[in-house]
């Protein structure tokens, strides 16, 4: 079994250095690495070439097309039986490929995904963001979880597909805005077997500050509507939760403002504040139980609220623009 690890790269030379360094410690060594520079202004050729003695690594540079089509560029040049896609901000544990091989020998899959977690070297903000993206009390709870709602869709930060999948249905049809979900849906619709390998864990840095995180999650909210335009049945009730949370926040804020201006004692405002406090408290103690770090737990409350608000606003923006307005 031979693997081709495909890494799209856009203006992140330091990240690819850390990712390639982590790959030099893999216990299973039958793999190649393809790094595809997607029109970056700050290329990483020199950094990648440093690893030519320790990895079977290949560097390519091409005009900017977005991550989906850049992965296709790598697929077309890969030699592996399986293609594994990582985001450039991931760190890969030494037993990643060993765990994948052991699983696939027992349970053959045509495509797979794995969970993500925070590495001990991450900053407190990155650990908080990781919590919000994996917590059962946010939209992140369905990722990397055997008991997730609905069908499991591998995500492109940690995604593997067999050569058979590539040869039969090709690669990504979208280059951004939910391209990995669209691909997963199409793989499954073609009769291929998809599964979660819970031992195929990666450490995913995601974003380094809350503003970057907000922009990323706003994009994710918009991506869900893009998926809906291609696969209407894939829009589930759970996807409306962040938008409902945003509406609830706006109502509570309005009631509190009315109380402050009119001097009223609105019980609905009080009830809304209690619910928000209870939710924040639940997140805090759950995050603390996971991390045993009070500061990370406090930041996790902020990260969770940012996640829901950003996703909800992005979802609402494109739902109104692309679904409601376009129907008129």
Automatic annotation (TrEMBL):
Keyword Transmembrane carried by entry: yes
Task: Indicate whether Membrane appears among the record's keywords.
Answer: yes
Parts of the chain that traverse the membrane: 237-258, 270-289, 295-314
Q: Provide the taxonomic classification.
A: Bacteria, Pseudomonadati, Bacteroidota, Sphingobacteriia, Sphingobacteriales
InterPro entries noted in UniProt: Glyco_trans_2-like, Glycosyltransf_2, Nucleotide-diphossugar_trans
User: Mind telling me which Pfam families this protein's record contains?
Assistant: Glycos_transf_2 (PF00535)
The name on file for this protein is Glycosyltransferase, catalytic subunit of cellulose synthase and poly-beta-1,6-N-acetylglucosamine synthase
For this UniProt entry, the molecular function terms from Gene Ontology, in alphabetical order, are: transferase activity
The entry's keywords:
Membrane, Transferase, Transmembrane, Transmembrane helix
Q: Which residues form the Glycosyltransferase 2-like domain?
A: 4-167
């Amino acid at each position: 079994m031979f693997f081709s690890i495909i890494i799209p790269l856009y203006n992140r030379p330091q990240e690819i250095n850390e990712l390639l360094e982590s790959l030099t410690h893999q216990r299973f060594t039958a793999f190649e690495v393809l790094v595809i520079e997607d029109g970056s202004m700050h290329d990483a050729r020199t950094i990648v070439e440093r690893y030519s003695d320790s990895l079977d690594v290949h560097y390519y540079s091409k005009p900017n097309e977005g991550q989906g089509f850049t992965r296709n560029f790598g697929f077309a040049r890969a030699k592996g039986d399986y293609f594994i896609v990582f985001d450039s901000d991931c760190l890969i544990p030494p037993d990643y490929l060993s765990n994948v091989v052991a699983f696939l020998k027992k349970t053959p899959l045509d495509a797979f995904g794995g969970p993500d977690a925070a590495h001990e070297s991450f900053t407190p903000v990155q650990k908080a963001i990781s919590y919000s993206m994996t917590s059962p009390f946010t939209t992140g709870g369905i990722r990397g979880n055997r008991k997730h709602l609905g069908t499991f869709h591998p995500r492109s930060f940690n995604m593997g597909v067999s050569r058979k999948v590539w040869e039969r249905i090709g690669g990504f049809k979208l280059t951004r805005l939910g391209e990995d979900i669209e691909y997963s849906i199409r793989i499954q619709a073609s009769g291929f077997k998809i599964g979660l390998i819970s031992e195929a864990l990666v450490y995913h840095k995601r974003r380094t500050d809350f503003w970057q995180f907000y922009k990323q999650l706003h994009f994710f909210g918009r991506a869900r509507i893009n998926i809906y335009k291609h696969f209407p049945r894939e829009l589930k009730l759970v996807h409306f939760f962040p938008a409902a949370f945003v509406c609830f926040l706006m109502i509570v804020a309005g009631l509190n403002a009315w109380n402050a201006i009119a001097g009223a004692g609105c019980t609905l405002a009080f009830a809304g504040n209690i619910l928000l406090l209870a939710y924040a408290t639940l997140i805090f103690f759950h995050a603390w139980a996971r991390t045993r770090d009070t500061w990370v737990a406090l930041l996790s409350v902020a990260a969770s609220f940012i996640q829901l608000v950003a996703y909800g606003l992005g979802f609402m923006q494109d739902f109104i623009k692309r679904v409601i307005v376009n129907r008129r």
